[in-house]
Design a protein that fits this description.
Elements (H helix, E strand, L loop, with lengths): L1 H19 L44 E6 L5 E8 L6 E10 L4 E7 L7 E5 L6 E9 L4 E9 L8
Antiparallel strand pairs: 1-2, 2-5, 3-4, 3-6, 6-7
Length: 158
Amino acid sequence: MKYIHYLLMAVILTAALCAAGCSQAPEEAPPVTTSPPTQAPVETPSGWSLTPGPIGTMPAGKEVSATARKDPLNNIITVQFDGGKGMTFITKIQAILYSSDGRVEEQYIERPLSLGKSITFDGTRGAPDRVKILAYYNTGEVIVISDKVYQREEAFAK
């Protein structure tokens, strides 16, 4: 009698699985091709220049700010995210250093973004350095928000 109960339960379970479609082979999904996200063109050393380029226009209501400062004593360049109305639309901030000695370095301030979050570069002692700051929006837009040359300031200048 027990065997009949087990047999009946197995038949009911098999019928339920077949009715639910669990016995069919899964359909082959077509391969998904994705293109890499578009990156802002980074100037190569052959295009290296200490001359700042144009600043982009940020979308209305999505403005953000980031600033750079070169320390007069140790030549450390600090790039700091200052926030703005469009802070929630930004995926990352990119800073590119063009140093007087020919180096090109880039660093990112990644999400989660917060006011005061910063990155640092080693600047060139006694010479100007250019820092270009780009904002990457979640729509794919990349906007240059700052592009300036920073001179070593005299620590005790009046």
